[in-house]
Write a structure and sequence with these properties.
The complex is a heterodimer of chains A (115) and B (114).
Chain A (H helix, E strand, L loop, with lengths): L2 E5 L2 E5 L4 E8 L5 E7 L5 E7 L5 E3 L5 E5 L4 E6 L8 E11 L2 E6 L3 E6 L1
Chain B lengths: L3 E3 L3 E4 L5 E7 L5 E8 L3 E8 L6 E2 L6 E7 L2 E6 L8 E8 L9 E2 L3 E5 L1
Parallel strand pairs in B: 2-11
Antiparallel strand pairs in B: 1-3, 3-8, 4-5, 4-9, 5-6, 7-8, 9-10, 9-11
Classes of the chains: A mainly beta (115), B mainly beta (114).
Chain lengths: 115, 114
């Protein structure tokens, strides 16, 4: 079965520090990969996605992620954290099944940013 | 901008009640989804629909049903609410069925079943 693993349910960084949120997936077929963010009291919104082509993907608010097929990873990074980045982040994988495409989400990583 | 609107932000219901959660999207999307979100478990798919009057079970359909009578509206029904259905419920929509399609989410309904 396909799966998505986000390492660390909580990550805490200082303002201005590097943000690194880890995502590994298992998929026997080429997947589409996504990062979504959920701010307090809101639904999820797309940060970035990888479909094909360049493996380094840039998203909104200065985030980027790199697809590494050999490591089955899609880690999310931001060079300098801002207080407004405090939120929960979800990695998601979409892959083709006999019944069409299916999307599964990781358990989420809550990012805390300290002043 | 796509807007997905869930009719209630908070609901409190009693065990055994029939509960309706409503979701409306304004972008003529083909697909609509219902998820529940629980701490440490992420999002789990309850049901989805790829067309009017069509529905497909997701990973955790037990205790739930859905209705899609109009393209823009997708309702989640708890026939007889139980305490283990206390959760955050998220509705989403997407334009097409390809894997690259982005899902657009509503703000969620936090349901408490007492």
């Amino acid at each position: 079965a396909q799966s998505v693993t986000q390492l660390g349910s909580h990550v805490s960084v200082s303002e201005g520090a590097l943000v690194l949120l880890r995502c590994n997936y298992s998929s026997s077929v080429p997947p589409y990969l996504f990062w979504y963010v959920q701010y307090p009291n809101q639904g999820l919104q797309l940060l970035l996605k990888y479909t094909t082509g360049a493996t380094l993907v840039k998203g909104i608010n200065g985030f980027e992620a790199e697809f590494k097929k050999s490591e089955t990873s899609f880690h999310l990074t931001k060079p300098s954290a801002h207080m407004s980045d405090a939120a929960e982040y979800f990695c998601a994988v979409s892959y083709l099944t006999t019944g069409g495409f299916k999307t599964i989400f990781g358990a989420g990583t809550r990012l805390f940013v300290k002043a | 901008d796509v807007k997905v609107t869930q009719s209630s932000r908070y609901l409190v219901k009693r065990t055994g009640e029939k509960v309706f959660l409503e979701c409306v999207q304004d972008m003529d999307h083909e697909n609509m989804f219902w998820y529940r979100q629980d701490p440490g478990l992420g999002l789990r798919l309850i049901y989805f629909s790829y067309d009017v009057k069509m529905k497909e079970k997701g990973d955790i359909p037990e205790g739930y049903s859905v209705s899609r009578e109009k393209k823009e509206r997708f309702s989640l029904i708890l026939e007889s609410a139980s305490t283990n259905q206390t959760s955050m419920y998220l509705c989403a929509s997407s334009l097409g069925t390809g894997g690259e399609n982005i899902q657009y989410f509503g703000a969620g309904t936090r349901l408490s079943v007492l």
